[in-house]
Amino acid sequence: MNIHQYDLLVKFSTLRKPFVYFILGGPGSGKGTQCELLSKNLKYVHLSAGQLLRNAIKNNSEHKSTIENCINNGGIVPSHVTINLLDKAIFEDISSDTFLIDGFPRNYENMENWIALMDNKINFKSVIHILCSRTTMIQRITERSKTSGRSDDNIQTLEKRFIRYQNDTYKIIEHYRNKNQLIEINGDNSIEIVQREILESLNQLNNK
Questions:
Q1: Angle, helix 49-58 to helix 64-72, in steps of 10 degrees
Q2: How many Å apart are CA 120 and CA 40, to the nearest integer?
Q3: How many CB atoms lie within 10 A of CB 131?
Q4: Domain limits for position 40
Q5: pLDDT tens digits, residue range 73-127?
Q6: Around 202, how many Cα atoms within 13 Å sit in the side-chain half-sphere?
Q7: How far, CA to CA in Å, does 59 sit from each of 32, 50, 53, 133, 149?
Q8: SS3 state of residue 128
Q9: Which 8-state DSSP code applies to residue 46?
Q10: What is the C-alpha to C-alpha distance for residues 67 and 86, in angstroms, rounded to an integer?
Q11: Can you tell me the distance from the alpha carbon of 94 to that of 35, in angstroms, rounded to the nearest whole number?
């Protein structure tokens, strides 16, 4: 990319206010799978907060050790680190005006920092909350662990992630419920049914 192209990209980025959805759900609820399908069906860009963090580790980011310790202990990466990665990913990708952020915010402090840093830069649409039973999530993570190669796909870390999810996500869900920006879907159903229900909900939302 030459200097002229870079300047045009920067100018274009400052004029854009992309649409953003948060996709929330417990570990193994199917967030990633549903985002991939939505990306194909609606041409939205899927951004996995977890994958961006894992890429930062792989690429020896300056925050590598902090991210690694948080992930391996089922903890939450500092808000400014994750938001910086998401911000960069959104405004460097001009293939779509709509982004699905999978797995963020993880707690209320994440959400508050996102609002403070990003609210004036994007158009927030809704939270899609995939509700899933503990039994289903354990079964899915156990199966995924056979091939994923992820360091956090184990029962010990999973238990910590369950507790954190239950304790930290409730306030976020209630915040967006009170703002009428919440879509809740039964994630225990098949992949196809969950996807159909999400598409129907998005269609209703966007036709209001």
A1: 130
A2: 28
A3: 14
A4: 17-206
A5: 767 899 999 999 999 999 999 999 999 999 899 899 999 999 999 999 999 999 9
A6: 22
A7: 22, 14, 10, 35, 17
A8: strand
A9: E
A10: 14
A11: 18
Number of domains observed in the structure of the chain: 1
Tokens of 133: 């039973």
The phi-psi region of residue 74 (left if phi > 0; otherwise alpha if psi is between -120 and 50; otherwise beta) is left
How far apart CA 60 and CA 74 sit, in angstroms, is 20
Q: What is the pLDDT of residues 170-208, one digit of tens each?
A: 899 999 999 999 999 999 999 999 999 999 999 999 887
Q: Within a domain: residue 84? A: yes
CB 7: neighbour CB atoms within 10 A? 10
Helix (H, G, I), strand (E, B) or coil at 192: helix
CA–CA gap between residue 52 and residue 41 (Å, rounded): 22
Strand order in the sheet with 98-102: 45-48, 98-102, 19-25, 123-131, 182-186
**Cβ distance 185 to 27 under 8 Å?**
no
What does the angle CA 78 – CA 79 – CA 83 come to, to the nearest 5 degrees? 130
The span from the CA of 90 to the CA of 80, in Å, is 15
CA distance 171 to 86: 22
1 within a domain of the structure (yes/no): no
Q: Is residue 173 part of a domain?
A: yes
For the domain that residue 189 is a member of, what is the CATH number? 3.40.50.300
139 assigned to some structural domain: yes
For residues 16 and 91, is the Cβ–Cβ distance under 8 A? yes
CA 159, 163, 164, 166: dihedral to nearest 10 degrees?
130
